[in-house]
Amino acid sequence: MDNDNALKGLSLLRIALGVWFLKLGLAHIDLAHFPQAGGHWHREMDRLFTLYLSKHPYPWFVSFVQSQVLPHKELFVNYTSVLELAAGALLFLGLLTPLISLLMIPYALFFMLLEVHYGLGPQGLYFALAVACVAFIMARAGRVWGLDFIPAGIAPGLPLW
User: Looking at the predicted structure, is the pLDDT value of residue 113 above 90?
Assistant: First the structure.
């Protein structure tokens, strides 16, 4: 496989993840009160935190979530919803791909750790997302079938594209 086909393959993965995160973000956001997450997502996150933390095998992670995330749950839920929406749009368009990919790595690792005791399926999904984001950064996947070629032509030395 030549380098051109490899980049097209990564770009196809970038576009597919962009569509998925657009769908996810739109499902979580309350468009009438943008950028706030919908009440359904707040209730679902309450349920997920209760479920996941009650059986979590790592006390240090439970302590982190209870001391750092739950006191700011409103901010966290809104942040994840907006991040999903932004990641979806930017990955789909291939715009600021390395930057949004960099922001998605902690997102993936957090949810991978949150669901660690649910087996290899959820862990694998978030691990694959984190690895895909690293690959997007390394390959500058937004320059093929994306819009990152525009800012790259204007300021080629900046690592944002």
Answer: yes
